[in-house]
């Protein structure tokens, strides 16, 4: 099976059903362990990206926190959220069809905006204002370290 072609077919079918043009196929050991399409239009869940859904299904199927050795095939270059999820779960290989820049040219600009913002230092980022505040109570990290 051509997995990238499959991801693109899922993406096109999703557009025809009112969704965004994103599909993903997650493969390990020559077996499809998860698939997904962008379900934002159905679930109104920000984590409903094709890659996140493919990962979620694979983790549920395999009952594992780690997916080392899996390869993600995605119709579009993963957004920062999906990129981070892939890194958290140990996927170190992705093949995509359309780039983030090409998605932006099609009017889907958010991934490129976030990637551009992440290139800046903490103080120069402008999508989300963040500030660290210390409180003089027991730190959850200290509890974690002492356990
Ligand atoms: Zn994403």
From TrEMBL:
Regions crossing the membrane: none
InterPro entries: APOBEC/CMP_deaminase_Zn-bd, CMP_dCMP_dom, Cytidine_deaminase-like
Keyword check for Zinc: yes
SUPFAM superfamilies: Cytidine deaminase-like
Gene Ontology MF terms: tRNA-specific adenosine-34 deaminase activity
Enzyme Commission code: 3.5.4.33
Pfam families, per the entry: dCMP_cyt_deam_1
Keywords: Hydrolase, Metal-binding, Zinc
All residue ranges annotated as the CMP/dCMP-type deaminase domain in the record: 1-111
Protein name: Nucleoside deaminase
Organism field: Savagea faecisuis
